[in-house]
Design a protein that fits this description.
Elements lengths: L2 H18 L2 H14 L11 E3 L7 H4 L4 E4 L8 E2 L16 E7 L8 H8 L3 E12 L3 H9 L28 H7 L12 E2 L5 E4 L3 H5 L10 H17 L1 H4 L2 E8 L9
Parallel strand pairs: 1-2, 1-4, 2-3, 4-5
Antiparallel strand pairs: 5-8, 6-8, 7-8
Helix pairs in contact: 2-8
Length: about 260
């Protein structure tokens, strides 16, 4: 394992510890997952793989989740380099109902390529559900000025250059540019998935920051934060271009194309 991966592993363990000790942040994630999985019905009955589970609390809420990460972490189910998900033998083709990830796409070297490869592990009608940063009028200021990860809207290709490690390299702007830009970067995905703008939803405005996030904890009483979170989520839903800080991407695997009749 390279130095960068050692660093990322230490960073992941620290982030996980901070997250699990932050009651308000756990509340924020719980509400996020309920919103993200609304389209799935009863998640407890589904075969769900999470990519990038290092600091994720998802399994706290759904204990059937299959967790994975490129980092070796003893509390996860699998070590998996998702860039090669189509070649892994850990999951059979067309065996998964859902592949999900939170703040992972913008760390991948080639997100579109990953999504194309991931389709082979999904059942017909299976879904990819991803949560990523969204740049509204309000969140753009926070992401660009206060967040440690870069946000580069000047890139000319939908990929990262010079990847050093799973956390060490990122571009927060990448998912929004792929799915909401006008560069045609999203077009290859229509071969495998069905989706349009109605498949994207928005989540929260300032409530993540009000929790202190992973890096710190702001001592707001839980009952006050719960009310704040509910209001914040409604505001982001109603005024996403102005207020939302995250968006939820939902792609559904298409039926196999029938061969042309002879």
């Amino acid at each position: 394992m390279t130095y960068e991966y050692d660093h990322d592993r230490e960073w992941t363990l620290k982030n996980r510890k901070n997250l699990l000790s932050n009651q308000n942040l756990i509340m924020w994630y719980e509400k996020l997952y309920k919103k993200a999985f609304t389209v799935c019905g009863n998640v407890d009955n589904l075969n769900v793989l999470e990519i990038g589970s290092g600091a994720s609390p998802l399994k706290m809420f759904y204990n059937n989740i299959i967790t994975s990460d490129i980092l070796e972490l003893d509390y996860l189910d699998f070590v998996l380099d998702c860039h090669n998900i189509d070649k892994t033998t850990q999951f059979e083709d067309e065996s998964l109902d859902v592949i999900t990830m939170t703040n992972v796409l913008h760390h991948l070297q080639n997100p579109v390529d990953f999504l194309l490869k991931a389709s082979c592990k999904l059942k017909i009608g299976g879904r990819v559900i991803a949560i990523e940063p969204f740049f509204s009028l309000v969140s753009s200021i926070i992401y660009k000025l206060l967040h440690h990860e870069p946000s580069d809207f000047s890139i000319t290709e939908p990929c990262l250059a010079g990847v050093k490690g799973p956390l060490s390299t990122a571009n927060q702007a990448l998912p929004q540019m792929i799915f909401m830009g006008n560069k045609g970067w999203v077009d290859p995905l229509f071969e495998k998935y069905s989706f349009d703008s109605s498949n994207f939803s928005y989540y929260s405005s300032l409530s993540y920051m009000a929790s202190g996030g992973i890096s710190r904890r702001i001592p707001i009483p839980a009952w006050i934060y719960r009310t704040m979170l509910a209001m914040d989520v409604r505001i982001a839903d109603r005024f996403p271009s102005m207020m939302a800080s995250f968006f939820i991407i939902c792609l559904q695997k298409k039926q196999h194309l029938k061969p042309p009749s002879q």
